[in-house]
Amino acid sequence: MQIDLSEEQRLLRDTCREFADKELRPNAKKWDREHRFPAEAVKKLFELGLGGVAVPSEWGGAGMDNVSYALAIEEISRGCASTGVTLSVNNSLYCDPIAKYGTDGQKESFLTPYARGEKLGCFGLTEPQAGSDAAEQRTTAVRKGDSYLINGTKNWITNGPVADAIVLFTMTDLSKGTKGITCFVVETKTPGFVRQKADEKLGICASPSCTIFFENMEVPISQRLGQEGDGFKIAMSTLDGGRIGIGAQAIGIGRAAFEEARDYSKIRKTFDIPIFQHQAIQFMLADMATALDAARLLVLRAAWLKDQGKRHTRESSMAKLFASEAANRVADKAVQIHGGMGYSKELDVERHFRDARITEIYEGTSEIQRLVISNLLLK
Ligand code: CAA
């Protein structure tokens, strides 16, 4: 694996860092409090080419690699974790499966405008009774001539309240388990697509998610992604990429918490000296920095393998598992270093603590990542 970044990768990282410092960090607290989707900031990031970082330029993307994508998501998430996941879902969970499994016609309609950032996508896999056990879905798609009639419910759909289209997983044969799942791409303005109000959450409060009902929603066969029964493999291979994005998001959140704790430790005094001079604080900061660097190496390894066209299921799960748990430890220590101020809404560190928590849950819990890793170790 190549560790040195190319000129192009460095330039994208630095551009995203500058954008985060200027446009995201000063506003993230307000967006969080108001539960406000930062539409303007997302639009500007899309204008910078962040709608489809690794999507080929012929389909509207920036034509860069997945290492660049991971670097960008880390920097954006350091500024605002909610904005980070908005981009991650559009890139990894929406654009990626269409780029990989879509026909040219599907790419023209459903990939190009989304990779260009003119429209926003979401991903519908989870259902009220089917989270970790993704094969337990009950949304059905019944063939009717040249169309399918879709009925069911998806929940926790990140970007759901504001998305223009969804990559949607359904059962075309309930008796076949993972082999009965079929994927579609559908515009959210399609009759029968019914969004509920946005979810109220502990963290990433500026990233809207919601439940969606499908009520006799008619979708033409031309919008089926792959063949009937291909859906589970499309979902799992898509999540292999998505977990790189969530690992990068976790590192960004952890870095924000670490940097604020480090800076605070230089100005806050106890017993007449800055707390940075106490070994107890120095050791916490050393552990935090080490965990974040280790997490980044795992995330970049998974992204690099994806760029080589190699299977990276195990490496993506390791990266997401380690980075999300590291981010939570780091955010916890950052609150501790801040003492009472860490518990206050006046500073940003309490938000990082809340934002970090979801990274151990969505796109596969830590327990699911351990299951995926251990299953592959035994093969
Ligand atoms: N790539 C390609 N194929 C894969 C694959 C992968 N990564 N993983 C599994 N498959 C294939 C297997 O090879 C197998 O194929 P065959 O039957 O032909 O051999 C088939 O899929 C079934 O595999 P398993 O038997 O391993 O499936 P399982 O039912 O035991 O489930 C699981 C495996 C890992 C637990 C899976 O259900 C899982 O990942 N669950 C977590 C779901 C998840 O991450 N949900 C997140 C929702 S999205 C989200 O969170 C978005 C957001 O808000 C931001």
Describe what this molecule looks like in 3D:
With 379 residues, this protein is an alpha+beta fold. The chain folds into 3 domains: 7-115, Orthogonal Bundle (Butyryl-Coa Dehydrogenase, subunit A, domain 1); 121-231, Butyryl-CoA Dehydrogenase, subunit A, domain 2; 232-377, Butyryl-CoA Dehydrogenase, subunit A, domain 3, CATH 1.20.140. The chain has helices at 7-24, 28-34, 39-47, 66-79, 81-101, 104-115, 231-267, 279-307, 313-338, 349-357, 366-377; strands at 121-124, 140-144, 147-158, 165-171, 181-187, 193-198, 209-220, 224-225, 269-270, 273-274. The strands form 3 sheets. A 4-stranded mixed sheet has the order 1-4-5-8. It has a 4-stranded antiparallel sheet with strand order 2-3-7-6, covered by helices on one side. A hairpin with a 2-residue loop joins strand 2 and strand 3 (147-158). The longest helix has 37 residues, at 231-267. The two termini are 23 Å apart.
Task: Give structural attributes.
four-stranded antiparallel β-sheet; globular; Butyryl-Coa Dehydrogenase, subunit A, domain 1; alpha+beta; 379 residues; Butyryl-CoA Dehydrogenase, subunit A, domain 3; binds acetoacetyl-coenzyme A
